[in-house]
Specification:
The protein is α/β, with parallel strands linked by helices and 219 residues long. It is built from eight helices and eight strands; from the N terminus they run αβαβααβαβαβαβαββ. Strand 3, helix 5 and strand 4 form a beta-alpha-beta unit.
Length: 219
Amino acid sequence: ADTLRKPPETRTGLIWRNDGLHKVTDSVAHILTKDLRVHDPENLEIIRMLLEKKKRVALVSKHEAHLDAVAVDQSLEQAGYDDLATLVFHIFGIRLEEGIVSSWFADSQSRIRIWPPFDVPETDDEKALKELLGETSVEAARDALDMGLLINIFPEGTREGKTQEMTKPIGATVNFFDEIGVDYILPVAIDGTQNILPRGKWPRCGSYDVTFCEPIDYH
């Protein structure tokens, strides 16, 4: 990506969302969304109880479009779990910061920066940044779980278009979860966000579904 060839932006750790941009992005997403259908929200009550027991929980989400992080937040809120929505830190590749629209989505969400899993560093600066983010993302995610926050990861590492099945899962995700000490995983199925924010096209109105699957004991 061209942005990765420029002097690296080296913010690390837990990056809290820009509340002003969050409100704007949330409003735009609501305008574009004809219908949001949330399935199996009862599993969120289990997550709430797990957090009360000091368990460390990670969301694992299907990735279709840049809208997906917002979709997770909005579906939590629609299901009546606003408290959980404020706890989520999304793990984003720095590629998301390239464009104007995608960077808005990045800054509107609380996040942890990682090096894009499919990008090969080409300069010494890029190699140093990849190594830095590899170390600090683990520390930040561990800190988040220590604080009783939720982390959300898109293990495919890229948007997968219209396919409904999760493809190309990053094997490093398992090692990452081991390093940060995850207790439970909440799979999140997202279907239809690519109809609202299609890759390389203008946004348009559409509907999508979010399913909160049964939490999985990681041990």
